[in-house]
Queue: 2 jobs
Job 1
Amino acid sequence: METLEPILSKHPFFKGLDKAYMELVTGCAKNVRFDAGQFIFRQHEAADVFYIIRQGKVALELSPPGRPPVTLETVNEEEILGWAWLVPPYHWHCDAQAVELTRAIALDGKCLRNKCMEDHDLGFELLNRLLPVIGKRMEATQLQLMDVYGTKA
Amino acid sequence: MEDIQRQNVMVPRPFLVHRVHKETEDTFTLELNGEDSAESPPFIPGQFNMLYAFGIGEVPISISGRSEASGGWLHTIREVGTVTRALHRMKRGGVLGLRGPFGTGWPIEEARGNDIVFMAGGIGLAPLRPALHVVQSMRDQFGEVALLYGARTPESLLFEKERELWRAKFGVQVKVTVDAAGREWKRNVGVVTNLVERASFDPAHTVAFICGPEVMMRFSVVELKQCGVPEDKIYISMERNMKCAVGFCGHCQFGPTFICKDGPVYRYDRIRQFLNVREV
């Protein structure tokens, strides 16, 4: 049976990952699709999945009470969606909504967490790949907070 | 003789407002014509003029293009203070004072045969626009051309029709993002630096022109360097409090240089050491 391994191993996030680990990761993966407008996850829900976007665009949103939702960032093809599955308390920090038809590979976060607990080297590998993504998003948030295009910038 | 030349560059010439075009809520383009065509001679994209609202003050404004119809200079201005507010209130037929053009421009010739990445933030697209016009006029002499453009909100994006033209007719990869948006916006949200890895270009053979707020330019340089664009192929347009525009007064001193005459367009590696010095 054809597995998702060839697709996953070509993805920048998993590039160079040991074949044995790749097989472990693939064991937690499945294909998913979301229609435009469909919510992929909601803020405060359990974060038990993360996604490799293969096609489409996903908006990360906040919905402050009494105010219209604000899109903070969009995640596009070749990027990953979600890191809260690896960081306690494993809850999403915002909503994710498909902006257009989106195809992705969903990785079972619980399954991966367990495998990382059993094999810390795998955990180290995944954290090593995830931390730069988190760091980059934090840097982007700093830039957004500075409001560099505002009149007082 | 030198004194006379100095006096001349310090004296504003009267220019007629031929047209005022509203770009966004706080941004507008003035089309300015001198008394004869010699009054608006050729300029290098990236250069600026000093615009004087009589009795109020003078501000440096980059030239954002030339009107095809009247041949006059275009200046795209964001209302941020007293002088730009006065300029915003000007109507067709109004007169303002103009000195220029001043400063260095984008080295488009050097980019010939290479890929070009234009990175613009906010009003920073205006000084890059005439460079894009030049590239568009000799498109076959460049490889990939990408325009990566970030703004605060969808409403503050500039030159929509032209961006579409560059994309559809001239094969420019136009990628746009905004810092925040509502659900009605179906395109990218996030910082402009995110667009770098989404564009297609050969980093080793790319020349990058960046214009926008200084913080945005610093992050952009970091991203381009990470991609493999050499430091000596990155150009940025600096902004400081320019007054005389010819390097006499020292208001715009930046390290050992004066932005008004040694800039505003600098090769990044030549000023890198001053960018991280506080209060410079």
Job 2
Amino acid sequence: MRQSKVFELIKLKFPQVSEEDLTKAVIVPQELLPAVANYLKGQDLSFDNLHCITAVDRLERIELVYIFYSFKNRQQAIVKVYLPIDAAEVESLTKFYRSADWFEREVYDLFGVKFLNHPNLARILNPQDWKGYPLRKNYTNPNLIRKP
Amino acid sequence: MKMSNMHSEQLCVNMGPQHPSTHGVLYLDLRLDGEEVVDCITHIGYLHRSMEKIAENRTYTQFIPFTDRLDYVASMNNNLAYVLAVEKLLNLDVPERAKYIRVIVAELNRIASHLLAIGTFAQDLGAFATPLFYCFREREKVIEIFDEVCGNRLTYNYMRIGGVQFDLPEGIDRRIKDFIKYMRPKINDYEGLLTNNPIFLERTKNIGILSKETAINYSITGPNLRASGVQWDLRKDEPYLVYDKFEFAIPTGKNGDMWDRYRVRMDELSQSLKIIEQAIAGIPEAQATVKAGRMIKPAAGEVYFRAESPRGELGFYIVSDGSVNPYRLKIRAPSFSNLAVLRELVKGVKVADVVGILGSLDILMGEIDR
Amino acid sequence: MAITEQIPGAEFIHKLPGGPVVLASTEKIFKWAKSSSLWPLTFGLACCAIEMIAAGASRFDIDRFGAGVFRASPRQCDVMIVAGTISVKMGECVKLLYEQMPEPKYVMALGNCAISGGIFYYDTYSVVKGTESLGIPVDVYIPGCPPRPENLFFGLMKLQEIVRKERHAAK
């Protein structure tokens, strides 16, 4: 089963999802994410492993990238969520996948995406009193010296 | 007063960031009830070096030395996963000889890394110095080979996009063969020293059990996952390079306890030796590198590639915008997920087992904090 | 007797007709003893820590220089080997550890990161640019990324030289 097949199956259930042209990733509207994750984890697709969560700062929006993996079907699915940069909030997936806990904390720490209903959304890599979100493109810090 | 009515106050023990058995700068906030661990809050980030920010300001080739410093015990495997990810982005195929060289050095590094893991694990359990010194003695042999191959002991910077930095030096195959011959009986030595040692068994059997479902749910990978009974190895299941040409087994455990994790690593030592032996025999005489140029400009796109590093699946998610620098580079480090499960594992165990469980997970702070 | 002259403390041995006699001031003996038993702090930060362990392990054997007694508590140490990159989050802990060490204390900066930030100098927001920028005085700098165990030994011998040439034995 390829990524496109996964897309078709999700599309059948959730007509609002779309496919990214370049990467063939499944784009999910932010309010649908928990439902899609629940479906992915369910019997039909059995994506039992949330392999990685990361984000990309595209200046006007933040793209959340979820990589799911199914050990049963031996296949990978990439799901993306587009978030507006000034109101980056999305439902947490910790109730489905325990691995989401630290991944989401990392994305929160580095990109400032708020995960709603996360058990402990605190900074993980930087100190708790850190200012700003370092991996955003507009981040500045006096300690950060650009390579000449 | 009846015993059941007695309550003791919870004791908070700070372990780290400077501690001899935390394998780096890790800070554990342990809550104890007597000898028993009630809760363990893991604080990481004491080695956060902002690699992902650096990557956005370096060219694709310039980032290779930084990957060395991720998992500094297995630099070759880090190099390998990164260059393979970039090559996937470029759709670049490397010469056959380079693939064989990559397999040989990656497996040698896996041996060195597992030796360190086993040695420090035994040290954590209280087998002071002897197993560690034995393991370091053999590890030095591997490092000597690397020293000859690429001129450094720890951070190799050997892989290049399109091949390897230099071809193998003359006569190295002989030395590697000698090493294999030397290493095989040494594994038996470790077995004799540790495997059936009653104290070792007492400390490791049925402690820190990680079930199959928990392991998958926490996205545990590598030897820790295999010890829980999942037969899963990217070298076999999604073969890259020339791993599909070699014969080797995937060792798995049954219970997922500390002893199984140790056992899987021990078995992987001999499997890696087997792979190296076959690779040395089958290495073709040809050019080792194709010229990819220093300023690589991949087309805009995204790629995710993962490879089996000694600690698990090391993934690189690279977003390219068509310029010479990556637009975004995410490192999916195996130890990051492997450490997240610690809180689950140490609940209810005795405080003395915490360091043992931590050692059996074989974490490395360099790649957790990045 | 070329070999014995290289031993620290060889200059105290005076050849007299009846046989060699050790003759020195107590301060000199004290300095000699101090320089030959520098106890380092077990304090690995990053990559260089692995080379530090290798220096202590079977092949290189740091015990030959009397510096093999790695102590886990800063209160029992003479020398802090800063082995690796210091992050902003770790900086406070490093300072605290240094302050906890009893006098006389010495600091070795092992590797480029501990000297200046090294490879992590540019484009990073979370790395302290060297041990000295934390306000910790460094006695010996050992460059390399990471330095080989031989380099560490050379640095150690330089530190022993510093200890032996100190003006006051009880610094």
